[in-house]
Design goal:
The chain is of the alpha/beta class and about 575 residues long. It has three domains: about 5-85, Gyrase A, domain 2 (2-Layer Sandwich), CATH 3.30.1360; about 115-260 and about 305-365, HUPs (Rossmann fold); about 385-425 and about 435-555, Orthogonal Bundle (Isoleucyl-tRNA Synthetase, Domain 1), CATH 1.10.730.10. The chain is about 55% helix and about 10% strand. The strands form four sheets. A four-stranded parallel β-sheet has the order 5-4-9-10, sandwiched between helices. The protein has a three-stranded antiparallel β-sheet with strand order 1-3-2. Strands 6-7-8 form a three-stranded antiparallel β-sheet. Strand 6 (about 275-280) and strand 7 (about 280-285) form a beta hairpin. Helix 20 (about 490-500) runs antiparallel to helix 21. The protein is flat, with a radius of gyration of 29 Å.
Length: about 575
């Protein structure tokens, strides 16, 4: 039962307010001793011409014989509702059990398509740790929107076009060895790319050569196009290996090159609408009335740039998917770029531009490293994932050497630890990489949450008791009740995460759920002590529900559970 809706329906007839108006103002009190929900009576003072405390006292008798509540109490201007704990627990745990792993799954997005663009690495360059921010957030958002019933399309807008490919082609023709590259594509391509920049600093004419090669590529020269396709193919093969480790997949790998033949239409549309202005030989859309620099559509040499390609991509996506929402998970430094192109799209008369959303994120910082492909000082994501798995394996060897499927457990915990780190805070906050906090089995970490799940499943395996139809009047302690309330809050966490495009609402939720579960576990005996069978059944039902919801929440973060650790 939705208690907010129930309270609103009961108050509707006696307050003159609509259910929607009442639901909006119902609050969760800051402390449990103040109740489970509260209705502030300030909104009624003007219409009823009475003081809010008096209104609260007059409304209180309306609930005097309602068995849904233990008590309903006026406290100053608030009407505080204390739920009947046994009834509340029965309602929540029955819904969890009947959901079969899909608790509070919604159909609010039925018939609506959400596009999520994320990851988007540059081909022929390393898939470094910085790319994980976009990948983790995008993958989580895609799962969250799917949980809410939306048809989600995952887009990987590859960086596979631009003058850097002229540089790489020049480097390959000078120093490339296909046999060597085949053995380790990304590393070897990175080496010759870095060498090009080192040599170009001594011989700037190399940059002219690179521009010529890119011009040949734009003109579909067979040799340069063949090399470009080779670089793209070997890069995708490498990238997919990392994506498989992360459990990430995409519906489209259409990158920048895909939109090459679609940009002239954008230029024509903006010209027809008289939006283009000439500035130093370039064609731009002026945005000075919004205190933004001009959005360049054509450079002075007639070439298009990122903005042109992104506008072409947005139009193509609208025509292809007729999206409800088009989300770009791209670093916060690109915020101005997206503000510019969204504004240009609005001025072109595309009202759906308001449904395009930039989801920014911060930086990954290392105490002693910087991420720069050009200079070759880069932290490969695959190396980090493998190191995390190795460190986790070592911890398991120390704590539980006899565990089954040790490799698989280490992989799930090691990768989960990294994903959790990237999703545990507001996405615009920078991350300082730290193994100690990441792999902490006691603190706010994926291993801590995964261990809580494994502990619960272990209890259920060891007990092997039928806990259907339990008597929840046996489990109304504060620790049990707070855990049930936290379980019940899952749907709100998912909705908040989608509303704000912030996976950390799920991370924070599941961490608090694990804390509530462990407090319950440590204070309320299940398999030990003088526990009667009915109490044990009720507590086992709570354990089962808590583990189901932990698993669902971790899934939305892209993190897998383990049955033992």
């Amino acid at each position: 039962m939705n208690y907010r809706e129930y309270i609103a329906s009961r108050l509707e007839s006696v307050t003159g307010l609509s259910r929607e108006e009442i639901e909006k103002v119902i609050e969760i009190p800051p402390e449990p001793k103040m109740g489970d929900m509260a209705f502030p009576c300030f909104t009624l003072a003007k219409t009823l011409k009475k003081a809010p405390p008096l209104i609260a006292n007059e409304l209180m008798p309306e609930f005097s014989n309602d068995d849904k509540f233990e008590k309903v109490q006026a406290a100053g201007p608030y009407l505080n509702f204390f739920f009947n704990r046994a009834e509340f627990e029965k309602d929540v745990l029955t819904r969890v059990k009947e959901s079969k792993g899909s608790f509070d799954k919604s159909e609010e997005g039925k018939g609506k398509t959400v596009l999520v663009e994320y990851s988007s690495p540059n081909i022929a360059k390393p898939f470094h740790i910085g790319h994980l921010f976009s990948t983790a957030i995008g993958n989580s958002l895609a799962r969250i929107y799917e949980y809410l019933g939306y048809d989600v399309k995952r887009l990987n807008h590859l960086g596979d076009w631009g003058t850097q490919f002229g540089k790489l082609i020049s480097a390959y023709k000078r120093w490339g060895d296909k046999e060597v590259i085949e053995k380790d594509p990304i590393n070897e391509l990175l080496k010759i790319y870095v060498k090009f920049h080192e040599e170009a600093e001594k011989n700037p004419e190399l940059n002219d050569e690179a521009r010529e090669y890119f011009k040949l590529l734009e003109n579909n020269d067979p040799e340069t196009t063949g090399l470009w396709q080779y670089f793209r193919d070997v890069s995708l093969k490498e990238f997919k290996r990392v994506y498989d480790m992360l459990g990430v997949s995409f519906d489209s790998y259409a990158g920048e090159s895909f939109y090459g033949d679609k940009m002239q239409e954008i230029v024509d549309i903006l010209s027809e609408k008289h939006l283009l202005t000439e500035s130093d030989g370039a064609k731009v859309v002026m945005l000075n009335n919004l205190n933004m620099p001009p959005c360049i559509i054509l450079k002075s040499d007639g070439a298009t740039i990122y903005a042109t390609r992104d506008i072409a991509a947005a139009l193509y996506r609208k025509r292809t998917y007729d999206f409800y929402k088009n989300i770009y998970v791209v670093g916060t430094p690109q915020a101005l770029h997206f503000r510019q192109i969204f504004e240009v799209m609005k001025r072109a008369g595309w009202d759906w531009a308001d449904n395009c959303v930039h989801v920014g994120f911060g930086l990954v910082k290392f105490p002693d490293k910087k991420l720069s492909t050009r200079h070759g000082d880069v932290v490969f994501l695959e190396d980090v994932l493998n190191e995390s798995i190795q460190k986790t394996r070592e911890k398991i060897e120390q704590s539980n050497p006899d565990i089954e499927d040790k490799e698989e457990v280490a992989k799930k915990i090691g990768i989960g630890a990294i994903l959790y780190t990237f999703l545990k805070n507001n996405r615009e906050k920078d991350i300082v990489f730290s193994w100690d906090s990441m792999l902490d089995f006691e603190g706010e970490s994926a291993p801590y949450v995964q261990y809580s799940y494994a502990r619960g499943r272990s209890i259920l395996r060891r007990c092997n008791t039928d806990f259907s139809n339990p008597d929840f009047s046996k489990t109304t302690s504060d620790e049990e009740y707070e855990l049930i309330k936290q379980i019940n809050a899952f749907g709100n966490a998912v909705s908040d995460a989608a509303d704000k495009n912030e996976p950390f609402y799920i991370t924070r939720y599941v961490t608090n759920l694990a804390k509530c579960f462990n407090k319950f576990y440590n204070t309320r005996p299940i398999l030990k002590g003088d526990v009667d069978s009915e109490t044990q059944k009720a507590r086992l039902a709570i354990v089962d529900a808590a583990t189901q919801v932990i698993k669902s929440a971790l899934y939305l973060l892209g993190i897998e559970t383990v049955e033992s650790m």
